[in-house]
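Support reply, case 0932

Customer input (verbatim):
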Amino acid sequence: MCTTTAKKINGNWILGKARDPVLWMRYEDECRLFATPQDTYKKLIIQNPIPHEDGYYGGINECGVAFVSTFVRTSHDQVSYIRKPYVRLILDAASARQAVEIIKSFNPKIGGNMLVADPGECFGIEATAKEYYVEEVKEECVKTNHFLHLSDRNLNFDVDITFEPWTKAHLARAEELLPGVNSIEDMCELFKDRVNSNKKCAISTTPSEAKCYTHSAFVFDCQSKMIYYAQGCPSEVDWKRYDFYNAPNAVTHEQID
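Our regenerated output:
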């Protein structure tokens, strides 16, 4: 369960995501620098901190190509974008257009509501196990956990009756706020929004309101190649800024069998 946004500000693309992990996902996340021989470009990726588990949630590379996504389960054999190494491979792209082609080359197809951008271009992708719908985003866009173009329905709506109202409330509120976003700081403020908290549907849901609360948020500045990262509920913790000259310190996590 996530809210993702894209906005063109002064000719530059800004992408953002608030992460509300469901029960089968790791709640915690971290920002990690990837700069190995297998990486075409250096990458800053928000990931599951446990290395032997799946979980790449979004990232940006040193070319300014950024990627965010949220899962939309439309079939039981659908592969989520969070599975390793998909996001890391997508960020081998030198441009948003090349990233789209990398995504389209995956077999099996990865599923989700995706946004990919570089400083000059942005694309939205709706993805199922059978097809991709790709659109060029001109000014701004919001994507949550349901599709606006493909007819496929999120199967999890039938499992949890609160899920469909949740994703539609997040879409409506983010679309209401996004026209007023005129800076990266404004985008960070969007992910702190508390409207609809009485319904447990705020963009930033707090730990006291729900177990599936907003555990983190991150915003990518494609031109400056920076991440603004709230490692914790975005309306309750301080945001930190990272780039390729000021990457987070590496943390070793012990595997527990």
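We compared this against your earlier run and they match. Two observations from our side: DSSP finds four helices and 14 strands in the chain. Residues 2-242 form a domain with the Penicillin V Acylase; Chain A fold (CATH 3.60.60.10). Please reopen the case if you see a mismatch on your end.
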